[in-house]
Specification:
- It is built from 10 helices and 13 strands.
- The chain is of the alpha+beta class and 356 residues long.
- Helix 2 runs parallel beside helix 10, helix 4 crosses helix 5 and helix 7 packs across helix 10.
- The radius of gyration is 21 Å and the shape is globular.
- This is Glutamine synthetase.
- Keywords: ATP-binding, Ligase, Nucleotide-binding.
- One of its GO terms (cellular component) is cytoplasm.
Length: 356
Amino acid sequence: MSLLEDLVSINLSDTTEKIITEYIWIGGSGMDMRSKARTLPGPVSDPSKIPKWNYDGSSTDQAPGDDSEVILYPQAIFKDPFRRGNNILVICDAYTPAGEPIPTNKRFNAAKIFSHPDVVAEEPWYGIEQEYTLLQKDVHWPLGWPVGGYPGPQGPYYCGAGTDKAFGRDIVNSHYKACLYAGINISGINGEVMPGQWEFQVGPAVGISAGDELWVARYILERITEIAGVVLSFDPKPIQGDWNGAGAHTNYSTKSMRSDGGTDVIKKAIEKLGLRHKEHIAAYGEGNERRLTGHHETADINTFSWGVANRGASVRVGRETEKNGKGYFEDRRPASNMDPYVVTSMIAETTILWKP
């Protein structure tokens, strides 16, 4: 095994200018991360300089077997924390050979919204709080829980420390550093209310980059849990009963909201979100009805509400924002399995472009 580890950690830059590029894309389920590697002749920093590539879409539920070719368009580059050196990860979106975005390509429409002049002028910032659950591989039961049984009730686990409170910290810390190495603007981590559940935050990120960075952060976490022999779950309610679900709270501001008098802009934006509540809920993740019950720090899925410092509301405004008269708000409705391209662009579209 030591020889294998030595070979895996070879520094290619000692012997060749060639680099390994890991092409990453989202599969047919909308949550499955796929990737494959390709050798390039030398270092690259511009995604437009990376060649397009194809894959078998019939094996990812994204194309029929008799017309299976799907084309990957490289969109954003990150340093590879696994191979290191000059090797890179590149997030891609997927198109037909004719150049049409395939139905599961949610980045394409998001990029159109974020390139709209009115949206560009507002410089939308996002901070996404990605919750997830670590599961024991063979039984798909939360890490640290007795097999077939339950730990003590919620209370000591949130931001807790100790072998009976924090399960999987090495995975979490490895992911934190790997994301920083990759160039992702990961801003923090914490243990969550349910034992075996954790959170990382990505942001502030502007426009389409929020989706790119969150997807690559998810990919890196999938790879690390693969190494650790642990299953990663983004299910919004992995354990039924008196246990917290998993969300992807999305913090948001525009230039107008961050400027003096911004709270008036925030209130108008929240009013718009309330008018389109059903449309947003439909796009905010599968199985969210199991999480948004009005309990466990959530609002009921059928009712829109907002409040200052209220974690039981659909949208929360922070005390500091209220005090300063400007700032941001938090949309607490998105589920942990939401597509960040969909959620971020929809919030921008509703609050900036939509005219009720």
